[in-house]
Amino acid sequence: MAVQARELTKDYKYGFSDIDVSVFRTAKGLSPEVVASISQHKNEPEWMLKFRLKALDHFRKRPMPNWGADLSGLDFENIYYYVKPVEEMSRSWDDVPDSIKNTFDRLGIPEAERKFLAGVSAQYDSEVVYHSIREDLEKQGVLFSDCDTGLREHEDLFRKYFGTVIPPNDNKFAALNSAVWSGGSFVYVPPGVKVDIPLQAYFRINSDNMGQFERTLIIADEGSSVHYIEGCTAPNYSSDSLHSAVVELVAHKGAKIRYTTIQNWSDNVYNLVTKRAIANEDATVEWIDGNLGSKVTMKYPSVYLMGERAHAEVMSAAFAGDGQHQDAGSKAIHVAPNTTSNIVSRSISKGSGRTSYRGHIKVLPKAHNVKVSVRCDALLLDEESRSDTYPYMDIENPDVTIGHEASVSKVGEDQIFYLTSRGITEQDATALIVNGFFEPFVKELPMEYAVELNRLLALSMEGAIG
Amino acid sequence: MTTPLAAEPTAALGPEVAAARAASSPTWLAARRRIAWDAYEALPMPSSHSDEDWRRTDISGLHPERFAPLENVDSTVLDAMRAQRDSAAPDAALIFDGPSSTIIDGADTLLAQGIIVTSLEEAATLHPELVQRALTAVRVDESKFAALWNALWRGGAFVYVPRGVQALAPVWIAHAASGSDVAVFPSTAVLLDEGASLTVIDTYASPAGTAPMFSDAMVLLSAGRDARLDYCTVQQWGGGVWHVAVQRAVLDANARLRFTGITLGSRLQKVWWEVLLDGIGSEADILGICFGDSTQHIDHQSLQAHRGAETRSNLLLKVAVRDQARSVYGGMIDVAPSAVHADGYVANRNLLLSQGAKADSIPRLEIRANDVKCGHGATAGHIDSDQRFYLMARGVPPEEASSLIVRGFMDDVLDRVPHRGFAELAGTLLDAEIAGASVAGVAASGA
């Protein structure tokens, strides 16, 4: 009755790749010249070039992290840091090249657009090529563009927030992103505006050996609310790719931001992402974070609770198949009194996969009456799978209530037996249990994503039963 | 041996002391000590900047070379520790781990059973194969402090219980220190052969006060197949002591360990409580209580290493911190692929009693086998104002209400301590700590 490992299907469903249509790319590797040429190509203001060069300097000085996942396979000199696929931004669908459209078709973007009728910002390589904003969003004064456009058209607003949540010297990969960033989304929601349809952007890696360094900046002004969805599918390539994004969220007084990600990079991508939010007085920030793909993911969405009564919610799910390491978790830094945070993590390891929960709860001396709950559960499917939990808690105020619980277990033989005795095949039974295990995460997703996630899980589970 | 530098104390921890220690040891031990000293000199001091394990515990103020090996212990410390034994376990054999000589007292019952109760130093000469067996659990160069201990320990306590022997009385070990700018290397080695059973009470104390001292301790416990070991330890060093210790148990098939640790004293401690569940079906219950106040920095690291199949471990550490005290707890349940059906749990509960007190908790899991049941829990909280209100409404003064609640928080651990006399001693010491009447350290005679 043992659940046995069998090799994941080699027939990776999203493993297609298109002919490279890039029109401009920098030389491989990293140098001040490469950084300057990116900045020059984008006609950026002087301060941004300086920002990039300073970040590059910091990236070079900073040692590789000596904790977390194995990053020894990364070769920074064998990566294109900037690739621009087409000359001009396309304003309408008709202008988008057919080959790119084909890719989007296979990803289901037009459907997503029809369904959500919100702004679709599809990133093809490093540049946003297709971008539409629903008219009523524009009327409400919501800014939703790629980050380069945000810098060009709203420089003052952009500059006020850019790099304030995650400074370039925060960590090695934030420094890298700060030096070579391109693309990503820029969202500004004016005071009191509730964006009731999720904004979404698809990110794609296409060029071989090309890193994707998008930069996302979301500002929700006082009393506003917004839900942003980031989904990723990457084509398969033989050599390792690097994805190193920076996502900054600022929730002003009483604002609410929900940020949903389903990460499904192909299994040769290093996904090293810095995501951080600032929650001011009475604000709520929610990270809904799913990690299925990639070779290595290191990602710890965090919330700095800066204002009284701010609330953080992090719901994450990770699936590590053969050869994958998902080192994910979350951080809540309670700076202000009466702040609360709730963290739920579910992870599954299959075959030689490894999931690690790495979390950090910090309560600073002035933050009284803080309430924190952390719950992480892990499921191990095979004898060689591995699960780790590294929850760090630093408590510097006596007036707190903090609870942390974790469990690690395997799919119960009695559960399988119960289901199979009712005529369900063993494979379906395991899939059912796995789906049930992810249920708290899945129910937070919009329906289309919930369906996609279930499809991806089913795919990953194929052949899980010997 | 004289030192070339006149200004230095004649016997500060250095190569001369190490050479002298090697010269007075049997050949096999002398060789081990020399390798250990070389390793000590080669290894860098752990740094809170570059060593992840030491990130939260800063020992940049500790300079081992400024301490001289302890030569004499104040008799009042001895008397106070003996008094603790007399009230908590009058039947226990006493091993007094003095700096230059080890005193054994009241061990007749155990000796008659064929149990060896002696100093580690003497055992190294008389029973080298047993001591070598005990020492296999620690590599001479596994850390800076382990290397130093290996090079410089002397005296120490050694207990060996032969196959099938159930000890009729506990062994009470007293590691003492007194004075200023002195270093001690408390050593305890306990070997239980197949089917043996024993209770050990391992105590560490020095006078109250802030005189600087350095303790580098090693406890090596080994329980053979089907053996039963109850190990209780209390650390009540004075407020100027730097305490670094490894307390490690290796369990063979179906062995059972009940470990109780009470941490009250020291200026700064970093202690590893490690259980290696090597044998199939071995089990360990680890209970800990810690009370920190003033500016104490108390660091506990635990390891539950599941190597054998069907192994079970459970750890509960309760910590209360007051004033500016800081607790650091790092736990690890490490399950090897071979540990099928392992069952491990770790829980850390923290009570913060004042603004300014800190508690860090990092209960980690690394699971490399799939058919296991493992979990952990960590909580941090403060005194429940409802509970306090309830007590005050019944006429209990506020301070007393707080004391009662803190004591209640600890009591469920004390209730599970296997040796009642020790549990009562721990309760008394805890009450004194909570009342704030005594700072860390044993009271001087007559006080």
Structural notes for this entry:
The complex is a heterodimer of chains A (466) and B (447). Chain A is α/β, with parallel strands linked by helices and 466 residues long. Chain A has two domains: 24-408, no CATH class; 411-466, no CATH class. Chain A has helices spanning 32-41, 46-61, 98-107, 109-116, 135-139, 147-153, 155-161, 172-180, 413-420, 426-442, 447-461, and strands at 24-25, 83-84, 120-124, 127-132, 143-146, 185-189, 199-204, 215-220, 225-233, 241-243, 246-251, 256-264, 269-279, 284-291, 296-299, 302-305, 311-320, 325-328, 331-334, 340-349, 354-363, 370-380, 386-395, 400-410. Chain A has a ten-stranded mixed β-sheet with strand order 4-3-7-9-12-14-17-20-22-24, with helices on one face. In chain A, a hairpin with a 2-residue loop joins strand 3 (120-124) and strand 4. The radius of gyration of chain A is 22 Å and the shape is globular. Residues 1-16, 87-91, 109-131, 203-210 and 234-238 of chain A have low confidence and may be disordered. With 447 residues, chain B is α/β, with parallel strands linked by helices. Chain B has one domain (15-382, 417-435). Helices cover 25% and strands 36% of the residues of chain B. Chain B is built from ten helices and 21 strands. Chain B has helices at residues 15-23, 27-42, 75-88, 108-112, 120-126, 128-135, 144-152, 385-393, 398-414, 420-435; strands at 68-69, 93-97, 102-105, 116-118, 157-161, 171-176, 182-184, 187-192, 197-205, 213-223, 228-236, 241-251, 256-263, 268-277, 283-292, 297-306, 312-321, 326-335, 343-352, 358-367, 373-381. In chain B, strands 1, 4, 5, 7, 8, 10, 12, 14, 16, 18 and 20 form an eleven-stranded mixed β-sheet that branches. In chain B, a hairpin with a 4-residue loop joins strand 2 (93-97) and strand 3. In chain B, helix 1 runs antiparallel to helix 2 (27-42), helix 2 (27-42) runs antiparallel to helix 7 and helix 8 packs across helix 9. The longest helix of chain B is centred in the last third of the chain and has 17 residues, at 398-414. The radius of gyration of chain B is 21 Å and the shape is globular. The relative contact order of chain B is 0.10. Residues 1-9 of chain B have low confidence and may be disordered. Classes of the chains: A alpha/beta (466), B alpha/beta (447). The interface between A and B is medium-sized, with 36 and 34 residues. Strand 24 (400-410) of chain A pairs antiparallel with strand 21 of chain B.
